[in-house]
UniProtKB/TrEMBL annotation:
Taxonomic lineage of the native organism: Eukaryota, Fungi, Dikarya, Ascomycota, Pezizomycotina
Protein origin, superkingdom: Eukaryota
Pfam families, alphabetized: adh_short
Organism: Coniosporium apollinis
Recorded family membership: Belongs to the short-chain dehydrogenases/reductases (SDR) family.
Protein name stated in the entry: Short chain dehydrogenase
Signal peptide: none
Amino acid sequence: MIMATSKPLVLITGANQGIGLATAQQLASSGKYHVLLGSRSSSKADAAIQQLLADTQYPVDAAAVSPITIDITSDSSIAAAAKFVGDTYGSLAVLINNAGISSGPAGSSLRENFRAVFETNVFGAAVVIDAFLPLLRASSYPDRRIVNVTSGLGQIGMAGARGSPFNARAYAAPEYRSSKAALNMLTAVNAVLLADEGIAVVAAAPGFCRTSFTGGQGSKDASEGARVIVRAATEGDPKEMYGTLVADEGTQFGW
């Protein structure tokens, strides 16, 4: 049985912590959206929701957020999540591909490290888009979007920028950088292919945020980075947004 929801339905992958959780909080607390908080395990998703509900500074209505289990490294998990959303809600208004990793498991070989990062940051995002696209197409929401969370580190120009604190000499991370460069291309191609259907595909670069992902290092907190993602998902004319990059630092697509 399909549950009716009067608010646009937003799915966020990797939303049980860090920037993803802050994004879920900002969207859900606005009162304008119903957020599906995606996590690799139901226990982590439930715990994250309890954390949101306990926050008195930015109160979230329990009816505005729901857990969903989705492991983006597993095609069967992605398919099950898409089926759940389809069976439960019938459609999806906004998809935010936030889940990502910076490196593989400790002790990984070079090939294993690259494979692990690409499996999540690129292949996972590609399969999630493919699985949920029918639900986006089924939505009557006038501002349907796919937001891919990228990084300025994925730009070739930044990697080679002399004197930059984020160039490859200061911070190599070849597997992470190349995965985000690939995600940028995935964003650009899907933006072109889906533009005529009125589905805006947008990239968001939240910047260097202090989260467990960065080991607590960064110039911004998670909520600041999340605001960039929220802007990419909700602001601007959708006809002009497709294929664009939303960022605070002036980062732009290109070589």
